[in-house]
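G., before I forget:
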Amino acid sequence: MLQALREIEGGIQLSLNVAARAPRLRVAPIFESFLRQVYFTGVTAATGVVLRACGLGVIIIAVMMDMLDADVDLAVKILLLLVFREIGPLAAAVVVILRTGTAVSAELAMMRVSGQTRALRYLGIDLYDYLVLPRVVGVMLATAALTFYIQFLAVLGGLVLSPFIIEATFTELTNRLFELFAPLDFYYSVLKSLLFGFTIAACCCWHGLNPPDLTHNAVPKAVTRAVTQSAMLVLLINAIFAYLVFGILFFGLVKASV
Amino acid sequence: MSELALRYRRNTSRHQIETALARGTVARLHVPDDDAKAHLVTAVLKARGGHDEELELFGEPTASLTPKARTKVRARIGAVSPVVGLMTNLNAWENISLPAAYHGSAPLAQVASLAREVLAAFGIEPRSFFSRLPDELGMLERKIAAFVRSLVGAPELMLFDALEDGLSAAECQHAARFEAEYRARRPGGSVLYIDTREGA
């Protein structure tokens, strides 16, 4: 219990520190570190892992449409409600946790254990400035970009695949999609993915900088905690967001009374 | 007192360490063990002594320093020490230029020029050296990188902590030139060698 409170307090402090230090991104080494993080999280992930995540989205669409015997309206609703709003941001978050979350927490824990964070302090370099801020902001932006990329490819894949499963043309589906699409869907997924990125990065940075002890054995422990908690936080945020914005929770099992 | 660059005293049940270093001079201090060495180096680099330590830097007792004054005092100290190692995910050039780039204390062109000068004195080709990660450097090369990084800040007090540890006899001769390189750039600076070995 005490540990959990300590982690919550640490997470809040870290988040506030990042917000307060945002202007420090202009400092050259911090900006370079930020660009590196965006490249690692956004660009390198976009090649293979994202395509696989998109494949998953397309398979879900195919199975759902086949099972539900969908028409044009239902097919587009599945694409919008399931793929665009939920699977896109969640798939991006999973990719970011698995690739970046593990890397960030392991790297920072290793730096802490090997005394590199201490060396930075002696050089007068603030750990929040140099290690945390570029990672958190970089992961936030890269997660939003990855989400958009996954949504675009998965929806496009769904539109291309659907005419093979249901009786509808690509043009019909596309027209219906643009009719149903609301700006709220876009803002919702951008905001959610930014929040996912922030949570994952903040959680992984905190666990990386606060390993359970200062031995090499602490590194995998820190990574495990960071990944587990990041995943739980992402699911929690997703559920809260769905309830707040659309009044639905757990795929419609809980509904807000309007 | 104002002529002293450093005065340090530590009393424990096991041993007593006391040293004073006048400005512009060189001293060698042999401490009983690694723990005592770590305490001394850490206290000097933090500009803050522990409860059983007395530390004065540049004539001022560090216990009475304000946080701002402490930061200023720290900026006047350089060190080649395992305590202030290199960042393993940055190459040699990024390591050397990091403090200057972060604090904006010196233009990078000036840092590069200084680094090339010092590397030339050690017979090292800068281009390949700069691009290598610390794990790809030898022990002497790592110490040279840390030395150049310290030199960029033009410190008034330079600590050489266990300088010869892990070096061959030939490499030790190279490392012995650190002091001359430092003196050439900071003639009035003070140098303190710290080691745990007798007769080092």
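Residues 39 and 150 of chain A are 17 Å apart (CA to CA). Residues 48-255 of chain A form one domain.

More on Monday.
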